[in-house]
Design brief:
There is one protein chain. The protein has 108 residues and is mainly alpha-helical. It is built from three helices and no strands.
Length: 108
């Protein structure tokens, strides 16, 4: 995960914990396990800073930033897939046109 302004207020351990929770969500793990990990994360964050000054904002910004990057990566992946399929369609059309031309010449 890239370092950005939102992640600067989080410890390395907090970033790793959030990344792990995100991977759990992405892999479709049971919500009980995700909730348990999230609760553990929050309790550890509170233990480190009982007043949680600024950490909630940093966590929210970090999660939103990670979600944005993930969504962008997904869109990029699907855009590349569309390009590949369009290229295949073009090749198939060209091949069909060549077949049609051969058939037309054989009918003469």
């Amino acid at each position: 995960m890239k370092k950005d302004e939102a992640s600067l207020n989080l410890t390395t351990q907090q970033e790793l914990s959030l990344e792990e929770i995100g991977q759990m969500i992405a892999s479709g793990e049971a919500s009980d396990a995700i909730n348990s990990s999230w609760e553990k994360f929050i309790l550890e964050a509170v233990a480190g800073d009982p007043e949680m000054t600024g950490d909630i904002d940093a966590i929210v910004q970090y999660v939103l930033g990670a979600a944005y990057r993930e969504a962008s990566d997904d869109l990029y992946f699907y855009a590349n897939k569309v390009k590949q399929f369009n290229a295949l369609k073009k090749e198939i059309r060209k091949y069909l046109m060549e077949i049609r031309e051969v058939i037309a010449q054989l009918k003469l």
